[in-house]
Amino acid sequence: MIIDKNENTVIIAQEKASVKTLVNNIEQAYNKYKAYHIIVRLSSLEDFELHDIIEFLRLSNNHRADKKSFVVVSSQVNIDEMPDEIVVVPTIEEAYDIIEMEEIERDLGF
Prior knowledge:
- The chain has helices spanning 19-28, 30-33, 50-54, 57-65, 92-108, and strands at residues 2-6, 9-13, 37-41, 70-73, 87-89.
- It is of the alpha/beta class.
- The protein has a five-stranded mixed sheet with strand order 1-2-3-4-5.
- The model has no long low-confidence stretch (mean pLDDT 88).
- InterPro entries: STAS_dom_sf.
């Protein structure tokens, strides 16, 4: 698991393990990251599908309930097939844009 901390955001990436292993690793180390917005970069992983992304759903819901953003970055899945409860974007830049928009919404009380 590769971790890159940047101000109030953590980017987590995985080079070779499965999505399920990555989710388990994040859950085990969650206390280190819970104060940050989380971006999970899946661009280096191959052969994953919608059901793999759904593995992040519980983690995403818990993190968002604590008023922090959780964004998955992958260009290998069809964004239109993703459930509304999880945010998936194709690039890191779009992930930062989502975090910025969600922070504005939280500040405005939405």
